[in-house]
Each structure stands twice: as C-alpha cells, then as structure tokens.
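Below is how a single chain appears once it has passed through the pipeline. First comes the sequence as given, then the structure the pipeline wrote out for it. We keep one example in the README because the format questions we get most often are answered faster by looking than by reading.
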Amino acid sequence: MNRLNKHYQSIVSYDLLTKFNYTNSFQLPNIEKISINMSSLEIILEKKKIIQLLLSIELITGQTGKITISKKNKIHLKIKKGMIVGCKVTLNKKQSYVFLDNLILFVLPHIKNFKGFKINNKMPKTLSFQINNFLNFFELQNEFLTFSNLPPLNISINTNSKDINELTLLLNSINFPIQK
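Resulting structure:
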C-alpha cells in the first residue's frame, strides 16, 4: 500500500468523519480518478511528436497512454475529423495515489514561484491545473533533449465531494498545496 493511501485510510478519513458528521464511511469524499492529457498543434504537423508524448506519459504515470483523435472538424485550427490531436491517461485507485504522492513530494516543490492552486467555485468535484515544464519530473530529467519541447501537461483530479469545503479539507489533509 502506498504512503498516501495509508495516510488517507488512517488520518484523513477520521478527520473527515469528525468534521462533517457522516453516518457512514462510504459517504467520505475520496479521489476517484486522475485524468492526464496532452495536446498540441505541433502534433498535428509533426506525427513523430506523438511518440515522445506517449513515452513521456508512460514514464511519468507508469501506465500506457491512449491516443486522442479529433471528433469534429475545426477549420480555424486546421484540424480534420479523425486526426491525432494528443494523448491521455486515466489513473484509478492505486495508480492515482502513487502519482499524487510523486506529484506532491517531488514535482510541485521544484516549480519556481509556486504558491498553490486555486479551487474553482463552480466545480466542487474537480481540481484542474497545468504543468508547463516536464523536467520537474525526475523520470524525464535524464533525457533532457528528448523531452524538452513537449506541450503542457493537463491534470484533472476528480473526487466525489459534494461541496468546496469537503474538497479543500480533503486536499489540505493530504498536503496538496491550495491557495486560500
């Protein structure tokens, strides 16, 4: 079992039970999945870039990525239906805790001028953010030239929380950096 998963089972679940007065442990908010995707217009022009994206996502998450294909024509972006646009990975259960633990301990402290993430009041179940520099991941630091020109990494953490208070308490209790 992962360090973060043990922390959630022992400490965070107890804190949530006492602060929100749940009657059942199944009502506790937890992390359902983490969606990670990358897309760029450079991929459309250069098909060889998709290999770099798939390899980088696999090194970061430990899971093979899926290629995303456009569903509609977007003339202003010169994208036709069926063209390769990017790649994505969805992490569930154990993999999500491993990735989140890696993100909190190693990646986010190395970002310059980082003060935390803001939670959107309109979406109390998700936290979405973007990481621009791939070289913050120590898996990719050895191959600097291969992974230097990649598009930003879009990360979305999906929970089953009902409101923003539950989401902030859940993320703060696992030491995820959130702005107040």
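The helical segments are 3-20, 41-45, 49-61, 93-107, 164-173.

See the next section for the split statistics.
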